[in-house]
Amino acid sequence: MVADEHSISLDQPATAHADTLLATTEVPQDGTWTVDQAESLYRLDYWSLGFFSASPHGDLLCHLQGADGRRSTASIPALVEELAEEGCPSPVLFEFPDIARECLEQYDSAIEFAFSSAGFPGKHKVAYPLKTNQGKHVVRAILSARTTNPLALEISGAAELALAVALGEPGKTEIICHGAKAGIYLQAVEAATEAGFQVTVVIEAVWEADVVIERLGKQPSESIQLGLRVRPIIADELHDTSIFGLTAPDLLEVFARLRKAKLLDRVNLLHCHLWSGGQTPRLRTQALEEMCALYVALRDAGLPIDRVDVGGGSAPELQEVSNDASPWENFASALVTTIVEKTSAAGHPVPTIVTENGRSLVEHSQLLVADVLGVREREASKNYRATAKSPPPLRVLSDLISEATVTVDAKACLEEALIARRETLRLFKNQELSLSDLAESERLLTTVVVALREKLPTIGAMGATGADAYRFGMDIYDLNISLFQSLPDTWALGHVFPVLPIEHLDRRPTRTAVLADLTCDEDGQVSRFIDPFDDVLGIPLHPTKQGRPYRVAFALVGAYQSALASNHNLFGKTARAVVSMVEGTPEITEVIPAEPISSILGTVGLDHASPESPYPSVASPTKGE
């Protein structure tokens, strides 16, 4: 009662996102509501790339294209109901492999167009980072995409290497291994080459060169090529904040060691992550120019480098231009122009450009649907009439309700209401007010704040005060998911995913909500709404009805969320449904049930429960425990 998740204080520091403008969700109140307004409100034109839309009846739709070119549409509510009838209720993670394949084909086509326009066709290769989404259906769809050059798989460990070998095609799929790791890892690399795969091992540190030299010197394999990962200095910036890549002195040292080992002829790739660390476009251009200069210098020194891997991480930049016909054209054009200009001017052949844009290729391919279990509404005061006998702070709050509707100084009115609330709390703690009085003061304060929040200055100008005042009147919609398991980027990075109801999009949303998960953690909430320009507070939703399901969807969850999932509070993986185009029709082709409790408990060392008891037993200690 004394403090809760909606408590307001004018003395609080600004929110964690105060560096950007905090706006409030604005739902048009005039005229007849249409699905076009719903699509605009939920920013589908900004983030969906045409893969999602609203039907005339208000259902969320997913638009798919099969490998044969035929297109069709799937209703998300219909898919949810189909799963429920088969005994698989939500929450469920829908997976659309065809979207990942189509994204890759569009991306590759845009880059190829940029190269062809510059007079250098066929000079691009996509390397898909397996860490982005390791699901077999997504990886297989990407490998089946029609691209200019065969797709490469970028991996960073022995398990990912095994996955690449299992899903890739010998003689066609190249595997790019970041880091030499250790001798046993290179042994697995050699096994992959024996299976028919072309493998490139990228050296990222001086000591890795020694590991490579020791292993390849004993059992040389012509199928193992080498790459060098460098760290651009980026003008006058300190480059040591990055932990990966060779500095200029490192590069000279590795060059000397490889020359002594007679392995220079194996080096055909130069690699650098140009989009890491939140760099500005100007700094990224400088880094790309420096990378081109390194390419020229290393070729002048005799290295047969013919490929430049610029890495990934460009999804935020792609999102900024997602309203274009192709969101990748600007990216491709800028990349190609710089590399062609710098390398040709130095008299060297234009290298093949390798890109690793994992997030932008797969984030649209998964959609998480969750049920609203219940709604906690912030209750306003109803017909409270203060009298001379009413506690003084309640009389003040009651008077402020009418004042809030006409005041021109909303901040001063809010301050007066907060002072009255503090006095209420003081009196309650001193046992001078009853619990009923305290409850009524909460209702009165809610009524004042709701009346004031539209009059408050821009939230960004007020810092935490405006944000908290707006949050105070929001409902809390409780969802049957764990954000730490299903949407880890929301709490770890403050990432904002698109969220919208899967039904009723033909109706005007009249509630503004904070979404809360099942965990007992304050970080398990979503209160920010996706917007291309502002940091928007509050999720617009509809009132729920008793006995009728109300579900929301989180979009763009196909990158990293499953790989980074956490069993916080021992909530396991949700059910997963794969939806693929089959002879021109979207069908649920596979359902993976939610992770059972027995499996989750196995991660903490407990045996399965016995048939007689629902509770697990402690696993027998292993030797050495």
Which descriptors apply to this entry?
10-stranded mixed β-sheet; alpha/beta; 36% helix; disordered C terminus
Per-chain topology:
Elements (H helix, E strand, L loop, with lengths): L21 E3 L10 H7 L2 H4 L4 E3 L5 E6 L5 E5 H10 L6 E4 L1 H21 L6 E6 L6 H8 L8 E4 L2 H10 L6 E5 L4 H12 L3 E6 L2 H13 L5 E6 L18 H13 L6 E5 L9 H20 L6 E3 L5 H6 L8 H17 L6 E4 L2 H5 L3 E11 L15 H13 L5 H20 L5 H18 L6 H4 L1 H9 L2 E5 L3 H4 L1 H5 L6 E3 L9 E6 L8 E2 L1 E2 L5 E3 L1 E3 L9 E4 L20 E8 L2 E8 L4 H6 L23
Parallel strand pairs: 1-20, 5-23, 6-7, 6-13, 7-8, 8-9, 9-10, 10-11, 11-12, 12-13, 15-17
Antiparallel strand pairs: 2-3, 3-4, 5-14, 14-15, 14-22, 16-22, 17-18, 17-21, 19-20, 23-24
Helix pairs in contact: 4-5, 4-12, 6-7, 8-9, 10-12, 14-15, 14-16, 15-16
What does this molecule look like?
This protein is α/β, with parallel strands linked by helices and 625 residues long. The chain has 21 helices and 24 strands. Helix 8 (206-218) links the parallel strand 9 and strand 10 (224-229). The longest helix has 21 residues, at 97-117. The chain starts with 21 loop residues before the first strand and ends in a 23-residue tail after the last helix.
